[in-house]
Fold each of these.
Amino acid sequence: MMPAPKSREGSREASREAEPLSVLYVEDDERLGRLTAQYLQSHGLRVSLCRRGDQAVAEVLRIRPDVVLLDLMLPGLDGIEVCRQLRKRLDVPILMVTARSEEADRVLGLEDGADDYISKPFSSRELLARIRAQARRAQGRTGPPTAQLRLGDLTIDPAAMSVTKAGKPLALTTFEFTLLRVLAERAGRVLGREKILELIHGSADEAFDRSIDVHISRLRHKLGDDPRSPRLLRTIRGAGYMLSPDAE
């Protein structure tokens, strides 16, 4: 018996699944960029290199990668400004790469739209894991599809990776969406930073003092929550964060 032909839609889905993850690595250190690209390519990723910050935005728009690896110190335009410009145009996951160890630099990158960061010198295996994690979040693959979540005037659609408040769509980064979904699924419960990172498939090593705080602050702003007296996304001093069950 001849096998039934695949539907055209099924073929398109299979084709998308077969495509390797694409990464644009913006790095002015030619040797580091080349060696990192070789490692990622050896694990099935497709990597493009860009050496200047003032060329990075155009390259991202041209290539449309699944993930952007963005060095902080770049000629022409620094990584922070590149991140700001990218966030005005599209919601590609951005993984900031920095040689600086100060918390302020990491916080600044997160505040300006980066989804995650990794410090030099980094483990190639960790970098690969973080790239794949960001790609999964962007593609809605952090877990099995679930029904829409409705809390007051807030609607979260995990399948479509979309959020509306009072019927108006909110522009969230992939990390912000995942963070909000995790909190919404446990509305009324207090979650500490390490628990939040565990639930979004992060590493406890990422839980430096203000990383989650920065994402929460950005999320509050987009939700229209008063940062001085938040009623929707509340801080429970000494314990963590809680999303109000009524979300009004």
Note: The two ends are 59 Å apart (CA to CA).
Amino acid sequence: MEYSSRRYADVVVAIPMGRIDHANADAFKHSLDPDLREGHALVLDLAGVEYISSVGLRVLMIAAKELHARERKLAVAALQPIVAEIISISRFDLILNVFPSVRVALGALSAPAQAAYDAAAQESAP
């Protein structure tokens, strides 16, 4: 599993890639920890996550509880069909804010973050 993150104004977008399962859930949690402590809302861009197990869902639940305790928001975005199905079957879609794209998630959390995301996308466009 790979992991990167980027801040847009007052929101951090975390980007895990690969599978989040028993073999790497701890690595995912350790990668996520600095972004949880950052002091901003968090969007998990799951476009590159091909599968998430119950252990991975547990990491999401812990992250959601930590952010909620700090009065910060967590959103998940751009779910692959299998990941969306797992989140729906497990009813995590009732706990997590799920959005079709990172841009939509940023817009729901912070207008400045969405504007920064759009500006970054303009700069990287050919």
Note: The first strand starts at residue 2 and ends at 8.
